[in-house]
Amino acid sequence: MLAFERSKWLDLKYVRSCMNLRSRLTLNTRSHKIGVAVASAAALTVASCLATLAVSAATATPKIAATSYFACLKSGVLTHVQTKTQSCAKGYTLATWSISGPTGATGPAGPAGANGATGLAGPAGATGPVGPAGATGPAGATGAAGTNGGQDCTKSASPAPGQNMFGCQFSTLSRSGPNFTAFSFAGVNAPFSVFHSANLAGVSFANSILTRSGFKDATLTGASFNGSFMPATDFSGNASIGVVADNSNVNMSSVYAVNSSFNGAVSYGIKSVWTGSNFSGSDFSGSQFLHTNLTNVDLTNSNMSRTQLGTVILTGANLQGSIWTGYTASTLTFSNTTCPDGTNSNNNSGTCIGHGM
User: Fold this and answer.
1) E strand or H helix at 250, and its extent?
2) Closest to 67 measured CA to CA, from 51, 80, 54, 52
3) Which CB contacts under 8 angstroms, 24+ apart, belong to 148-153?
4) Is residue 264 within 8 Å of 240, Cβ to Cβ?
5) Strand partners, 68
6) Contact yes or no for 279/292 (Cβ under 8 A)
7) Confidence band of 8 (pLDDT split at 50, 70, 90)
8) Entry pTM
9) What's the gap between Cα 297 and its chain centre?
């Protein structure tokens, strides 16, 4: 408040100085008859004095609000100058002015500055966490049979039960070659082994593991596979699996040979036994079964199309879902047989003919 009051006192003092100057100039012009030009110059001198006051006030106290002045004007002379409004005496005119003028209009926006330089590349981010393990992929296809792996597959005597003969190759043994009738492969572990076209008449493979082994076009007269595990095994071609002679017929009882192939195979003989075996999903198309016992055999979903059956026992057999397109048959025995259409032969007048066959 002291600074403001002091500034206000200085302003009033300077205004009064300007007014005294105006009075002296007016008296001089009247006394000496200077004339209109000089009087005008005197008025300009007073105006300049007041303008200087305005600039001085604006630069001296920029933080103090602009002040309005009031005075009484008569014959070019200002009297009673003060900072609040007033009433002037008769013959005087109230004059008012401010130290600062009104705020000017906002200037136009300056031009946009140039783009700044590209900043430095930031540091590399931290390595993210390891993602979850992916789902297990599907199982791959079964590979081809491997080599013998150094195993002795050309023994001159029968291998011992449990002998590992994985992937052994016997396909080079022709039917006129070495005599295997004295051999026994009973109980051997011989998956993926190959006996194509070999003469295996009378040879025993009982209780052996023969998964995916091959006996295509082999002679198996009187051979025994009783109790063997041999899914997906190949007996296709013209394999001979029996002869019409007592005690010389193949034994295929109690074997597990699902999804195997007997396409074109021949089985005949009064003692050719296939009882209690599982051949579900296997292919018997074009094969022959003559004087064959298929009691309790599982032939579900197997392909029996174009088969020839004569004097075949199907007691307790399961034929559900099997295919019999183009087959021929004579003297078939049905008893408690599940027919291809799922019905029981006992409920079909003792037959499956006309029930999927």
Assistant:
1) none
2) 54
3) 153/193
4) no
5) 98
6) no
7) very low
8) 0.55
9) 47
The domain spans of the chain are: 2-98, 158-357
Looking at residue 287, what is its pLDDT?
Answer: 84
pLDDT score of 4: 38
Summarize pLDDT for 100-123 with one digit per residue, the tens: 666 778 889 889 888 888 888 889
If phi over 0 gives left and psi between -120 and 50 gives alpha, with beta otherwise, what is residue 242?
left
User: 8 vs 121, which has greater pLDDT?
Assistant: 121
Name the CATH topology of 158-357: Pectate Lyase C-like (2.160.20)
C-alpha neighbours within 13 Å on the C-beta side of residue 16? 10
Dihedral angle sign, alpha carbons of residues 15, 17, 18, 22: positive
> Alpha-carbon torsion 46, 48, 51, 57, what sign?
negative
Q: Which of these, 326, 320, 332, lies nearest to 356 by C-alpha position?
A: 320
Alpha carbon 144 to its chain's center: 32
Residue found by looking up tokens 């109230």 in the block? 94
